[in-house]
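Hi P.,

Sorry for the delay on this. The queue was packed all week, but I finally got your sequence through. Input first:
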Amino acid sequence: MERKIILPDEIFGRKTAGAMEKVLKGNSQTQVSEQTAPQVNAPDLKDYIWVPSIKLYVAKERDLNGLSWNQATDKIYNQGINVAGQRAEMPTPFEFMSYLKYLLSGNIKGLAESERQNILNDILKIGKYIGNWLNAKFVEQNKGFNNFGIETLTLDSSGKPAKKVEPLEPCLLQDGWADINSGNSQGLLTKSYGSSYEQGKNAYFWYPRNTAVARFGADSVGAFLFCGSVADNSDPALGVRLVVRPKGASSKKMVGDKTWN
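Then the structure:
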């Protein structure tokens, strides 16, 4: 039996009434910023950018602002957020960093240059604090680098939440400025870069701590990839850039699947 998921009253601060019908009917204003059409069964999503390297739609703006990581993951994976008939998720560090690098790569077809710059500034620019929760929790595991595993949340084929754990891959093991392009396959940074902030080139990396969760943010000092955050922390400027995985596209295979409660 197909599981019905209720569409929230608002997404991205806008009313959702009639939105589903417009998308499914192929509203002419609904489009995706992309150089080529996705080779998967996916609708065009307004306010999302198609990132071809990861075959994933990533939101232009943050949602669920002011929620802690625990509250945001509960909203996404237990209660469910429906976007154009598909479940939204929280991006992993690898997915978020792939999105960021795609934005940094240059002009994107269908996306105005001014809008691209605005998104980058929202993620990277020095100023008041802004942040994005990421789908990663670090747990003790003998198999992983520094005896850690990286735990992520996902949805199984029936739409039920589950968690996956895989050994942590080698990354920097001290806090400091790191090359934003040096991410491993889990999105964690591996090479030091500079002694001060250079927008679009480096970020301050807090290496993984036990039971900590990940977020990417910027403040008055610079941008940072923080892998030492507490899951109960919250801030009005800390939210989630939702991602939508088209039907036919799967997330990176991880080991140790377990039901998540």
